[in-house]
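Appendix B. Raw example, untouched.
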Amino acid sequence: MRAVSSYDEVCTAEDVDVVYISLPNDAHSHWVQTALAAGKHVLCEKPLGMDADEVAAMTDAATRAGCLLVEGAWDRWHPRTQRAQALLAEAAGPRVARAWFTFPSVPADNYRLDPAHGGGALLDIGCYAVAAAHWALGAEDVTVVSAEQRMSSTGVDLTTTAVLAAGEGRAEVTASFERPESQGVEVEAPGLRVEIPDPAFTSWRTPSVLRVVEDGVTREEEFPACDAYQLMVEAMSARSRGQDAWLLPLSTSRAVATTLDEIVRRASDVSAS
C-alpha cells in the first residue's frame, strides 16, 4: 500500500494493472482515456459518459489501447438481476415493463445539482432504470416515445419520466430526486411476470427475492446476501488476468447512453413546444 499525489501517477504506475474511476460524471471521459492511453484496464463508475459521444470516444480509445473498459453498473452482476434476465430470455412475445429509482432530496451543495458535473436525476439514477428497461425489453435499440423533465433552478432535472419502445414492447422509466425513496423493476410477458422489489438496484449484503408469476402460479425465488459490487470487481480482475468472466459489454453501455441522450432531447422538445 502506498500513496500518490495525483491521478496521473496512478495511471502511469508500473505496478497498476486496472484503474477504477469513481469521479463525478464530467471527469470520466478524460481520466478513462488517460488510463487507457497508459495501457491500463479501466472500470468506470456509471454512467460511463456524459453522453453517447463520450462513450463512443472512450470505446474507440479502449480498442486502440487493446484494454478492457467496463461501466461499473454493479447491479448487473447481482445474481437476482441475472436470473430475471434469464427468465425473460425464455419468454416469447412483447413485454411491458416499469423501472424506477427515486429518493426525496439532494443537499443544495451536492454535485448532483451541478450541470457542469453532469448532475441531474437522469444521469445519476435514471441510468439504472433506463438500463433495466433495455434488458427488460430484450433490446439494445430502443425508441423514446415520450419524455418529460422537471428542472431545478440550477439547470438539472429533478424528475425525469419517459416511455420507451422496442418492437411491440413498452417500458416506463422514472428517476427523481423529489419523490419518496423507492426502487423497482416489473416486467410482464405472455405467461410471465417478473418483479425485482425495492431495492432493485442497490441491494447490498442482504438477502433478496425475485417475485415470479408463471402461468398463473406465484413464487418467490430467494437469493442469499451478496455484494454485487465485489462480484463486479472480481469479474474485472479475472478478465484482466485473461480468465473467463462476464463483463457488461460496451455496446450495451453505448445503447443506454444513446437512450439517455434521446430522453433529454424529447423532453426538451416538449418543454419548448
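End of appendix B.
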